Structures are given as structure tokens and as C-alpha cells.
Amino acid sequence: MARRAATSARITDGGWQVRAALAAVGAAVALTGCGTAAGPGTPAPDVSGPVYPTVSAVEVSPTSSREAPGSDDHGDEQAPAALPPAAQAPRVVEAFAVAWARSDLPADVWWKRVAPHCEDGFAHALRTVDPAQVPATQVTGRPAAKQPPKNGAAVYEVPTDAGTLTVTLAAVAGRWVVIGNDFVRAVR
Questions:
Q1: Residue 150's pLDDT is what?
Q2: 35 falls within a domain
């Protein structure tokens, strides 16, 4: 029993050394994270300087199925149409405004008159308009450019007997088409 007590005393007396050694090992494991993201035994990268993105092997593979930058994988598009002449824009606006201000017409007739001047999506949206609710009955002046035609877009204001009609145009397939409108009633 004396022998066991002596051994026990040694462990107890030297316990701080064992605990210190275990703490050092634990700290080393915690600081290294049990290895690097690349795997055990691989040195950690030096991150003291700037870090730049790298290209993966998939991105540089000559047999990659990704298309080359600047190419088109559809193959059915045509070159964009040339911009229509700026002088045509006010004519389109005026024709649309005259058709739009015909609040006396039945809805189907009214729509057939405004639709040819509009982009397809906007023409479709105008099918929901009740022409009897259009406040103007006639155009009273010529279109004035609020934003003259530039880079395929333009905005015009048209005076009517009830206020100002604002018409937004876009160049689509080589012609000016109406893509939106707004109306501000005149204050009387």
C-alpha cells in the first residue's frame, strides 16, 4: 500500500506538469484546426498580402462546355435594327394621341386605332381601357419633345382639351412605338 501511495503522491505533485503539457497540446490543436482546408500535412497559405480570386480547373479546361466570352449560344438573333429617324417620332406621337383622345368610340374600335402605334405589350395592356374614361376628346396642339429622341428613346407632351398627354416612345425593330403614356388634367 505504501508503494501505491508514493505513486499517487508523485502524480498529484506532478499533476500541474501533466495539465500544462495537455493544455499546450490542446492549444496547438485549436490553433492549427487539426490541419488546413487543403488537407492534413498541407501547409496553410500565406494570407499576409492581398488575396485574389483564382480560376478553377473547370473554367480553364479546353473541353469546357461553357461558351466563350462574347459569344451567343442562341444563334437565332439578328443584328439590332438601325434606329428610326428622329423626325418620325413626333408623327407617331401625334397619330397615337389623336386615336387615344377618341373617347366617343366603342372600345374595340378605339383599341384598333391606338394599337398600331404601340409596342405589343403596351397594346395588350390598352385592351383593358374603357375609352369613355379617357378625359380628352381632342388634341389641341402639336407634340413637344420633353426628351428628344436619343439612343432609341423619347418622351413627348401633347396638349389636349382636358390636359396634357405624355407619350413615351422606344425604337423597336427599326420604328418608333409607344411604350407608355400618362395624362395630367388641366386645372380649371
A1: 95
A2: no
Evaluated on CA atoms 72, 76, 80, 82, the torsion sign reads positive
Give domain status of residue 28, yes or no: no
CA 123 to CA 115: how far, in whole Å?
5
Partnered with residue 180 across adjacent β-strands are 168
Cross-strand partners of 139: 160
**Structural domain tally of the chain?**
1
3-53: pLDDT as tens digits: 444 444 444 445 555 455 545 555 555 555 554 555 566 665 555 555 445
> Do 102 and 139 contact (CB within 8 A), yes or no?
no
Amino acid at 142: R
CA distance 51 to 100: 60
Cα–Cα dist 115/178, whole Å: 9
Determine, yes or no, domain membership for 111.
yes
- Taking a C-beta distance cutoff of 8 angstroms, is the pair 161, 138 a contact? yes
